[in-house]
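In the current project phase, work has continued on tokenised descriptions of protein folds. One protein thus recorded appears below exactly as we store it.

——
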Amino acid sequence: MAAQSLVNLARTFWMDEAGFARQHAHPWFVWKVGRPSEAPIVAPTLTIGGDQNKPRSGDPIAIPILKGKASVFAMGITIGRTENNDVVLRHEEVSRFHAYVQEASGVLNLVDADSKNGTWVNGLRLMASKPQPLPPTASIKFGQLQITYYDNAAFIDFLRNP
């Protein structure tokens, strides 16, 4: 599933909260896409259902953290700039293969894949190849790209109380 406009996703949530929670039982990234003058944003990967779901410049997007069909990497849910990743973040600070999310004993971990510009969770830089457990919500930086991580329950709470 590709990134979606957070505004449109919130509308879907408010129309059927229980159905939304069942259909989207996975963690999310929220990226507050910059305006065109705020380089170095390139563009988020979209769309679902055509142009009506494309975010306008400055609209936040929600990116599901899910294993994609095209990804051949077995270590987890890959994050990077290129299309062969499960989560694609088109930004010049993001490496082609930057990081990955993997589950161990029921805990989701974020792992930096020895990226050029580094990965941070709540202000702490990750060591390459060393898993970092993710709390229910976290501020994450891939290089200088700032996003917010939400586990499924925290994302539902965020939609209820923006």
Remarks:
- Residues 109 and 132 are 5 Å apart (CA to CA).
- The radius of gyration is 15 Å.
